[in-house]
Amino acid sequence: MSESDTVQLSSGREYVGIDEIDGPLIFIRKTHPVGYRELVECTDSSGAVRLGMVLDTSEDVVVVQVFSGTASMTLPSTRVRFLGEPHRLDVSRSMLGRVFNGLGEPADGGPAPVGDAREDVNGRPINPTAREYPRDFIQTGISAIDGMNTLIRGQKLPIFSGSGLPHNELAAQIARQAKIQGGKSDFAVVFAAMGVKHDVARYFISSFEESGSLENVALFLSLADDPSIERLITPRSALTLAEHLAFREDMHVLVIMTDMSNYCESLREISTLRGEIPSRKGYPGYLYSDLAEIYERSGMLKGFKGSITQLPILTMPNDDISHPIPDLSGYITEGQIVFEREMHGRGIYPPVAGLPSLSRLMKDGIGEGMTRADHPHLASQLFAAYSYVKDVRNLASVIGEEELTPLDRQYMEFGEAFEKHFVTQGSDEDRPIEHTLDLGWEVLSKLPAEELHRVTEEEIDEYYGRTAEKR
């Protein structure tokens, strides 16, 4: 900046006057060398101070995104001070039971928490060799997840939903109900919501308050009318607290993030403002690495008792699973839970599609000593039978249901029972894993025993046709 004054301060350099304002971005030329994602204080002519973050830096120009926008800021009178460090968050166990905005500032009227540590929200890279392989089962109380797409402690398992589908209800239900089997250590939920409307944010808060689970939940809420840059900070703030709870407080932490599509839209918006060359669907070419930076902040580390499990939720634009957001998320994460709009239209909650959903780590966290010995074979049999139901339904739509064979009609009956009794459950219904597995055997009893090729004879003798009597 050739015509601006520079003031040297103990905590950084301050520049008077900026060169350009473009939406939420300001451009400052000829500064000292500054770091990527360095925190910035911007003071307008009235003395109001706003925080910003360095988005781009070079020898010629520095680009700063102002968190609360650039309204009332002018070129000659704006003062910019570079703080010489990234955005940091004071984190402590006392943040559980509190509500914060996307930057980690209190949004519930309470005081700022006194932190046990002050951590960089961007996190630190994890050496892959320091990771423990995820194995322990997390019970969500949702049969379609626990029975068929089991969530494992340390896993990242996204939910692919669509506009208007009940992903928010499911997210709140999982946050209320999730628990570690056997009561191992402390369990907490860190909930990050990005770009949500006020009524949705109120729903999340009241849902946790009414159930009494708020004391074990920390909420980070970035509302729809908050700046785009705040949505990019929100998951990082939430994960910074999760890392402290897991690796300093020895807690098992479930991080639920909704909606990652809003996060990606903000990334695209800021990339466009910066004039970057777009990639697929206008998203920046670094979308994959940016998502990986968030998703990979989960897992278990050798020598630490705690763990971080991620459950990101994203809405697929036009229900297109090949869209860049779900497509890239699927490459990074260990499976996906997919919502089906047709099931939702038939009143099925949660509308979890049986066939496209999978949990790649499920096989390592179920079975004898973890859930129940019959669980792996039962889940495989349910998948196989429901897959055949889809084929029979397609055939019935062509030739008519009355032309089906007696066996095919039994499969149709199984499909109805599977969706109405196994998948469907109340939004406040918490099913233990034993109940979920018993329901699986109950619906399988609609089929002849000779059709069950993926379970053992011993399992058929013990469970087939008997679970309904037990209940």
Radius of gyration: 25 Å
- CATH architect. name of the largest domain: 3-Layer(aba) Sandwich
Low-confidence stretches: none
- CATH fold call of the largest domain: Rossmann fold
What kind of sheet is the major sheet?
Answer: 8 strands, antiparallel
CATH classification, class level of the largest domain: Alpha Beta
> Which class do the helix and strand fractions yield?
alpha/beta
Helical residue percent band? 25-40%
- Structure annotation, total helices: 13
Overall 3D form: elongated
What's the domain count? 3
How are the strands ordered across the major sheet?
1-2-8-5-6-7-4-3
Domain ATPase F1/V1/A1 complex alpha/beta subunit N-terminal: 20-84
InterPro entries: ATP-synt_VA_C, ATPase_F1/V1/A1_a/bsu_N, ATPase_F1/V1/A1_a/bsu_nucl-bd, P-loop_NTPase, V-ATPase_su_B/beta
Protein name: V-type ATP synthase beta chain
Pfam families: ATP-synt_ab, ATP-synt_ab_N, ATP-synt_VA_C
Brief account:
With 471 residues, the chain is of the alpha/beta class. 32% of the residues lie in helices and 24% in strands.
Polypeptide structure, described:
This protein is α/β, with parallel strands linked by helices and 471 residues long. It has three domains: 5-86, Elongation Factor Tu (Ef-tu), domain 3 (Beta Barrel), CATH 2.40.30.20; 89-363, Rossmann fold, CATH 3.40.50.12240; 375-470, no CATH class. 32% of the residues lie in helices and 24% in strands. It contains 13 helices and 23 strands. The chain has helices spanning 143-146, 167-177, 198-211, 228-247, 260-273, 287-295, 324-332, 341-345, 375-399, 406-423, 433-444, 457-463, 467-470; strands at 5-9, 12-16, 20-22, 25-29, 38-43, 49-57, 61-66, 79-86, 88-91, 99-101, 117-120, 131-132, 137-139, 151-152, 159-161, 179-180, 186-196, 217-223, 251-258, 300-301, 307-315, 335-338, 358-359. An eight-stranded antiparallel sheet has the order 1-2-8-5-6-7-4-3, with no helix packed on it. The chain has an eight-stranded mixed sheet with strand order 10-18-17-19-21-15-22-23, sandwiched between helices. A three-stranded antiparallel sheet has the order 14-13-16, with no helix packed on it. Helix 2 (167-177) packs parallel to helix 3 (198-211). It is elongated and about 80 Å long.
